[in-house]
Design a protein that fits this description.
2 strands, two-stranded antiparallel sheet, mainly alpha
Length: 66
């Protein structure tokens, strides 16, 4: 796991826990138009992504070479 990814996930998680807003983003599949994700759904996606990244980081015992 990339140290920068862990740091960003931790920072975003802290921001959201303090009542900060989640970034809006778009999801697209193939050549279809993207669907904008915002508000509470974006916050839920971000929280889940942060948990996943931080959980994977704890489970990965291998040292990381820069």
């Amino acid at each position: 796991m990339n140290d920068a990814a862990k740091e960003h996930a931790h920072n975003l998680q802290q921001w959201l826990e303090k009542g900060g807003f989640a970034p809006s983003f778009s999801i697209a599949v193939g050549d279809r138009s993207g669907v904008m994700i915002a508000g509470m759904l974006a916050k839920d996606f971000c929280r889940a992504a942060c948990r996943s990244i931080l959980s994977d980081a704890k489970a990965d015992p291998s040292p990381h070479l820069g």
